[in-house]
Amino acid sequence: MTDVTIFGKGNMGTAIAGVLGKGGATVTHVGSDDTDATVTGDVVVLAVPHPAVDQIIAGYGDQLAGKIVVDITNPLDFATFDSLVVPADSSKAAEIAAQLPSASVLKAFNTNFAATLASGTVGDNQPTTVLVAGDDAAAKQTLSDLVVAGGLRAVDAGSLKRARELEAIGFLQLTAAVGEQIGWTGGFAVVR
Known about the structure:
The protein is an alpha/beta fold. The chain has a single domain, classed as NAD(P)-binding Rossmann-like Domain (Rossmann fold, 3-Layer(aba) Sandwich). The chain contains six helices and nine strands. The strands form two sheets. Strands 2-1-3-4-5-8-9 form a seven-stranded mixed beta sheet, sandwiched between helices. The chain has a two-stranded antiparallel ribbon with strand order 6-7. It is globular and about 40 Å long. The model has no long low-confidence stretch (mean pLDDT 94).
């Protein structure tokens, strides 16, 4: 059994907990009101808005060493909702990996909406697929196994360099939903 710690108690944190719990993981949540939490999971999911990540790393960085750290953020400019705030040749996941050199950082769940994770479907019954990027093959396999055991699909999206493209897809999907071009139960689906 895998222990998972999820930072964030919002819609995404709750939906991811549901999937991973269904897949057999023991899930512990850490919220912003938890001041002295201990990271017990071998897998740690950062299910928070991207501006909160640096605070988590500052407070828990030592506890994240040797862990699989899953970045689900989409680093949007929340003031304009019109751009990403990371350099064009980088990603939030790459920034996290640089801050946590002894962790195995993955990018996943950022191209999914909470409703599609919870239901297992996107739009008109397309299976929900979680795209997973990272440089550690064993870490990607651990997360993918949990996702599949939780009833969803998982696709290896390549190295952590692909996080930039995943963040662009997440950005496009979010802006389409906010602009009411797609619903929060819709989004991009992977058809095999």
